[in-house]
Amino acid sequence: VEIAGWVNEATDVGDRVWFAQEFGGNLYAQATAYNSGSVEEMWLITPVINLDEMNDPRLKFMSAQAYWNHDGLEVLISTDFDGSDIIGAQWEELNCNLAGEDDPNHAWIPSGIISLADYEGDAYIAFKYVGEDGVETTSYRLDDIEVYDGGSGIAGYNVYAGPCYGGAEDMVFKGFTLDQTFTDNTWGTAEAGVYKWAVEVV
């Protein structure tokens, strides 16, 4: 993948990088360690983002997985990355919804709205893949990556569900909706029980 201003590199572990794929006219980035013959660590990093220019900076994107056998994708933010020294920068993991074991192969999963309001100044967002041929070879895909100013309006709603008698830590992100309707696609496959739902305005 070669996009102006983006960094797409392997660290000292492995030599693969994120690559472009196309299906049905849709172009996206993909990473996998399958058939690489080694351990792989790949970083896809946005151009610099001036968070101070936005009232309410937010991130959203779509991810998909195929042939899952490990959680190999992380989404990170740095405010001291210099544009080249990945290892020397400090990176903090962002809490977002990623395609995982329970999602169908190739299904695009929304990240939800990730607030970047706790950060200031220049920042970079990184999508880090780690895997090993023959051991951890899940393929991950990325599309529709967007950092934008949420302003003071409502972008939509993050929907969560959890056991009726559980705490906040037991709530699981189920999806994002632009309006006040939401369809739970796991209905009929979830374990029987009583669940509670929560909605976060974003």
Poorly predicted tracts of residues: none
| Whole-angstrom Rg | 18 Å
Portion in strands: 35-45%
Q: Helix/strand-derived class?
A: mainly beta
Number of helices, counting only DSSP H or I runs of 4 residues or more:
0
Molecular shape? globular
Order of helices and strands: EEEEEEEEEEEEEEE
Largest sheet: 6 strands, antiparallel
Q: How widely separated are the two ends?
A: 31 Å
Give the number of DSSP strands: 15
Q: Helix share of residues? A: under 10%
Please provide a written account of the structure.
It is a single chain. By secondary structure, the protein is an all-beta fold. 0% of the residues lie in helices and 44% in strands. It has strands at residues 7-10, 19-23, 26-31, 39-45, 49-50, 57-66, 73-78, 92-93, 109-110, 114-115, 122-132, 139-149, 157-163, 172-177, 195-201. The strands form three sheets. Strands 1, 4, 5, 7, 8 and 11 form a six-stranded antiparallel sheet that branches. Strands 2, 3, 6, 9, 10 and 12 form a six-stranded antiparallel sheet that branches. A three-stranded antiparallel sheet has the order 14-13-15, with no helix packed on it. A hairpin with an 8-residue loop joins strand 13 (157-163) and strand 14 (172-177).
Q: Which key phrases capture this entry?
A:
mainly beta; 6-stranded antiparallel β-sheet
Write the layout of secondary structure elements.
Blueprint: E1 7-10, E2 19-23, E3 26-31, E4 39-45, E5 49-50, E6 57-66, E7 73-78, E8 92-93, E9 109-110, E10 114-115, E11 122-132, E12 139-149, E13 157-163, E14 172-177, E15 195-201
Antiparallel strand pairs: 1-4, 2-3, 3-12, 4-11, 5-11, 6-9, 6-10, 6-12, 7-8, 7-11, 13-14, 13-15
